[in-house]
Amino acid sequence: MNFPFYIARRYLFSKKSTHAINIISTISAVGVAVATMALVVTLSVFNGFHDLVASFFTTFDPQLKVVPVSGKTVAADDPTLKTICSLKQVEVATEIVEDMALATYNGRQAMVKIKGVEDNFDSLTHIREILEGDGEYCLHAADMHYGIVGIRLAERFGMGYTFQNELKIYAPKREGQLNLANPQDGFVEGNLYSPGVLFCVKQGKYDKNYILTSIAFARNLFAQQGMVSAVELRLKPGSDFDGVKAEMNKIGEGKYRVLDRYEQQEDTFKIMKIEKLIAYIFLTFILVVACFNLIGSISMLIIDKRNDVVTLRNLGANDSQIVRIFLFEGRMISTLGALAGIAVGLLLCWIQQQWGLVGLGRSSGSFIIDSYPVSVHPEDVILIFITVLAVGYAAVWYPVRYFSRRLL
After folding, report:
1. For residue 235, which of 117, 122, 88 has the smallest C-alpha distance?
2. Closest Cα to residue 58, out of 234, 237, 248, 256?
3. CA–CA dist 388, 36 (Å, integer)
4. Rounded CA gap, 375 and 50, in Å?
């Protein structure tokens, strides 16, 4: 058996001559455990919100979205784009024309994003699952174009599931100069009618700003005949998602980018990652503060065991072995604290997942969830364990080296 480890283990669990050392050692382990538990719970809550937001986007966003590297639109018959869409793994492909416009209804107006899609859009996404109202999913009939409005935008306009009057859409003309004497001549006007349904993604980005309509209406409104803003794709079941995406990026290299659902919402998820990183850094600082108790515990233990050190030297122990005894002592306290903190943190996360004991306070009932979501990621647990050990071992190293030179 490793001699320094054996002695350190006995020191850890044996009664010290000064009772305060036992108390301080216990406080050190508890402090490390509490900081570790806070890391596990906090990062798991961030993961819960991340996964929750990701689940909302899947009802509206496609699996893959092909967008031009430069410019807002490209020709719909571009050979490179056709090659990407004709890959055997692609099950559904729909052309998109999307841009900003001004919408007015009963004297109210708002800047909105018009998303024109083909008739197979409902086969591409789960749009039918997020519709509310008594009508049906429909984008056009003959020369009449329908607009499916986000539920929050509908509230802003003061309309119900079925709006009685037409929804007027204005977009600036792409050519010519604005006549200040008659500014309305500088805009293209279009009318959208109600299909009797609204969509509810439960994300403000969509529900407050988007109007879904036919691609023909969007092309006429924005003067984009024969052009597309993007092509949205769904792959066949069982396809190698990463492999297909890499192949598409290779085909469209320098001209097109192929975005998955996370990349389509890059800003949102980047902010969430930054928030999670900041929380991790702040909690690591708290862990460093908790490890100051560890420094005091080891320092007092070294002073308490000065007579034992003399005995160990007489038995043949050298200075290196004696130093390692106290290093092992501090490391065991850190390790036990880390394991206990992770265990308690995982237990709390499981309780929250099962029963949702910690609610959202006064906001409970105002959102789609009533309690904080929790999702434990194994890589986070491993990172936390390594962080705690690194901080704990670093905190132990200096006092052991210092007191070994001064007192031992």
Report:
1. 88
2. 234
3. 7
4. 9
